[in-house]
Specification:
By secondary structure, the protein is an alpha/beta fold. The chain folds into two domains: 151 residues, P-loop containing nucleotide triphosphate hydrolases (Rossmann fold, 3-Layer(aba) Sandwich); 59 residues, Guanylate Kinase phosphate binding domain (2-Layer Sandwich), CATH 3.30.63.10. The strands form two sheets. Strands 2-7-1-8-9 form a five-stranded parallel sheet, sandwiched between helices. Strands 4-3-6-5 form a four-stranded mixed sheet. Helix 1 packs across helix 7. It is elongated, with a radius of gyration of 20 Å. The structure holds guanosine-5'-monophosphate (5GP). The site of guanosine-5'-monophosphate has 14 residues, from strand 5, strand 6 and helix 4.
């Protein structure tokens, strides 16, 4: 008999680009076998070393719009001039199998999920400082000055949306941040609303039996 509901949890992770959320999530996937990362579609051009089907499904704008029209996305958003979207398929299958599904998405998409699926866990990852974030983005050296400007404009809006999330994790150090995310996932699995009714009933029956024995 299952004592707690085994269904997986939908987990949305957001944070300003460069805050290290992808690295933290990679570490979570490595250390927590009950997690699965959804691969998004995007109309953005691949960065060097990015692999189609692994980092993203890279689509043309037209292909992306076709998928929107077909209703293929759980959510999608336009961010810094490109489309990004979460494919619907596979997610339900993973949740059913007890796997926590992680979506690493920006805030507009996160807010759409919040409207649709309220029992989602929302985690916001912040860099220790914005200067540190700028340093990381400079180090990555993948952005034009204009793209960087757009990202910092978005970051401004993003950090003002943090109160819509359930948890905040400051990414000073990847391993620590990963431990915190895993701790959140464990705590959420222990929520009272995950107790199976049948388990509570069986405990009640046992109490009844014990009382009869003691009487
Ligand atoms: P990047 O271009 O740096 O890979 O991603 C830009 C932003 O888009 C990041 O904040 C990333 O989390 C977000 N993003 C990636 N995939 C999706 C998605 O499927 N939906 C939404 N709404 N945002 C996404």
């Amino acid at each position: 008999m299952n004592k707690l509901k085994t269904r997986g949890q939908l987990v949305v992770i957001s944070g300003p680009s460069g805050c290290g959320k992808d690295t933290v999530v990679k570490e979570v996937l490595k250390t927590n076998k009950d997690t699965w990362l959804s691969v998004s579609c995007t109309s953005r051009a691949p960065r060097p070393k990015e692999v189609d089907g692994k980092d993203y499904y890279f689509l043309t704008k037209e292909e992306f719009i076709e998928k929107i029209d077909k209703g293929n996305f759980l959510e999608f958003a336009e961010y810094a001039g490109n489309y990004y979207g979460t494919p619907k398929d596979v997610i339900e299958e993973k949740l059913e199998a007890g796997i926590d599904v992680i979506l690493v998405i920006e805030i507009q998409g996160a807010l759409k999920i919040k409207e649709k699926l309220d029992d989602t866990i929302f985690i916001f990852i912040l860099p220790p400082s914005m200067r540190e974030l700028k340093k990381r983005l400079d180090g990555r050296n993948t952005e034009t000055k204009e793209a960087m400007f757009k990202r910092f404009q978005s970051a401004y809006q993003e950090i003002n949306t943090v109160n819509k999330y359930n948890y905040v994790v400051i990414n000073d150090e990847v391993e620590e941040a990963c431990k915190k995310v895993n701790a959140i996932l464990i705590s959420e699995r222990s929520r009272v609303d995950r107790i199976e009714e049948t388990f509570l009933n069986s405990l009640e029956e046992e109490i009844h039996e014990i009382l009869v024995e003691l009487n």
